[in-house]
Amino acid sequence: MQRFLIIFITITCFAFISMDDYKDGMKAYKRGNIIEALELFITKVIDKPKHKKSVMMIKKLVPEVIKIREEKARKYEASGQWDKAQKQYDRLRRLDRVLQKLIVFENGKKIEFPRINVADAQSTARDRAAEKYYIQGVEAMKTIGNAEQAVNFFKEARKFNPDYKDAKELSAQALYKDGVHAIDAGDFKAGVQILWKTRDFYPDGFKDAEQRIQAAIDSAKVKVAIMPFDNLTSKTKYGDVGANLSSEIIASGVGQKPIFVDFVTRDYVYSLLSEQNFGASGRVDASTAPQIGKLIGIHVFVFGKITAINEFYPKVQKVNGESQKKIYGDPSYYVYAKWTKHTRTGKVTVSANYQIVDVKTGRIVDSNSISRTISSTAQWVTYVGDEEALDSSVLAHNTTGDVSIHPPEILASDAIESISRTISAKILNYYNE
Questions:
Q1: Beta strands in 78-212 (DSSP E)
Q2: Which helix H or strand E contains 231, and what residues bound it?
Q3: Is 153 helix (H, G, I), strand (E, B) or coil?
C-alpha cells in the first residue's frame, strides 16, 4: 500500500510539473517557437494574472508575434496566396481579442495592450482570395465535364464571402450545363444525378432543371416484370409459394423507392398481351421474353423456380439435472430440486433459383441459386422439489411448462421474404444504379 502511494504521488507531481505553462513556454521560446511560447504564457496569466515572469514574456513576445504574422501575410500576398494571407490576419485579430480581454498586472497596475488593427488588410486579402477562386471557377466551367471542379472553386470563393458576386448562380449553371449535356448524349442517369445537385443552390429549382430531370427519368425508366416462380416441390401446405415470392420481390423492390425502375406483375404483362392480341394464354419464358418484351414495352423479365422446401422439426431434447442450495439461518438447511430442461427447435430451408433476362440484348444478365434457412427455438424447465434450489441458469427459462415454436408455414414465409430481398437487390443493382 505504501509503495502504491509513493508511485501515485510521484506520477501526480510529474503531471503537475509537465503542465506548468510558464516552464513549457520557456522551453518553446528557447526552441524558437515564439508563437507557441506566447500562447503558453497567456494561458499561465489567465490562471495567475500576477505571474510576473509570464507577464514580462508576454510584453516581450507580443510585438515579435505581430511582426512574424505580418511578414508571413505580406509574403503570401506577394505570391498571390491570398487565402493564406487572410489566415495570418485572422490569427492576429484573434490575438487582439485575447489581449483586450486579458487582465494582467505590472507593479500593481493593469496593463493595456495596444490594438492590432489589421481588419482592412484582412478584408482586402479575403476579397482577393475570393476573386482568385472565382476566376478559377469561371475558367473550369468553360469545359464540359468540369462542373464539380468549378463548383469546388466557387465554394472556396464563398467561404470568404457567401454572397460573392454570382458564384452561387454560376455553381448551379455549371452543373446545369453538364447535366443537360449528359442527357443530350443519352446518359440519362448521369444527367439526372448532376442536375439534382443544382438543388443545393436553388432548392425550388434552377431554370428548367426539374422538368429535365423528370423527362430524363422517364426516358431511363426500366420496366421489370416479375413473373410467378414455378413451384417444383409439389408441396401445397405452404400456399402458392411461387406467386408469394414474386409478390415479395416486388414489395421489397418498391420499398427501396427506386428512381429508374418500375416493377410490374404477371397480370400487367398479360393484360398488355391481350391488348396486342398476342394471346393471354401464351406462356412467357426466358426464350420468348425478348420478343414479347419488345412488343409490349417490358425491358426486363425475372423468372425463377422454387426448387425445395425442407422442414426439420426433431423431437424435444431433454437434459436432466439436480440442484441444491444452502439456506443460511438458525439453523441453516439445504433445499433440493430435480429439473429437466426441454429444448424444442424447428427450421425450414427454402431453395430457389432465378434468371434476370434483359429484353434489349436477349441475354440472361444474372442467374443464380439461393437458399435461406429460418429457425425457431424455445426452451423451458420443469422440476420437482423446491424452486429455491434452482440456480440462475435454470431459472432463466420458462418454468411453467410446454412452450411452442413457429410452425413451418411461418418459417417458410420468412425464408421466402429473405430470398426476395436478395433478388430485388440484384435487380436494382443492375438497373437503378
A1: 105-106, 109-110
A2: strand 230-231
A3: helix
Q: What is the pLDDT of residue 6?
A: 41
What is residue 13's predicted lDDT score, i.e. its pLDDT?
A: 39
Is the confidence at residue 17, as pLDDT, over 60? no
pLDDT bin (cut points 50, 70, 90) of residue 15 is: very low
Q: Which amino acid is at 239?
A: G
Average pLDDT over residues 187-197: 96
Whole-number pLDDT of residue 279: 57
Is the model more confident about 5 or about 114?
114
DSSP helix/strand/coil, 283: coil
Q: What is the DSSP string of 8-65?
A: HHHHHHHHHHHT-HHHHHHHHHHHT-HHHHHHHHHHHHHH-TT-HHHHHHHHHHHHHH
- Element of type H or E holding 347: strand 333-358
How far is residue 2's CA from residue 7's CA, in Å, rounded to a whole number? 9
Is pLDDT of 49 > 70?
yes
Q: What is the rounded radius of gyration, in angstroms, for the C-alpha atoms of the chain?
A: 38
Residue 134, C-alpha cell as written in the block = 472565382
Cα gap 149→198, rounded to integer Å:
14
Write down the mean pLDDT value for the chain: 91
Neighbours of 220 (CB within 10 A): 20
**CA 89 to CA 80: how far, in whole Å?**
15
**DSSP assignments along 365-412, one per residue:** EEEEEEEEEEEEEEEEEEEEE-GGG--HHHHTSB-SS------HHHHH
CA torsion, ordered 226, 230, 236, 241, to nearest 10 deg: -20
Amino acid in position 391: D
- The pTM of this model reads 0.72
Parallel/antiparallel/unpaired status of strands 333-358 and 109-110: unpaired
96 and 38 Cβ atoms separated by less than 8 Å: no
Cis peptide before 63 (omega within 30 of 0): no
Q: Which three cell numbers stand for residue 86?
A: 487572410
Are 127 and 86 contacting, i.e. CB atoms less than 8 angstroms apart? no
- Does position 214 have pLDDT exceeding 90, yes or no? yes
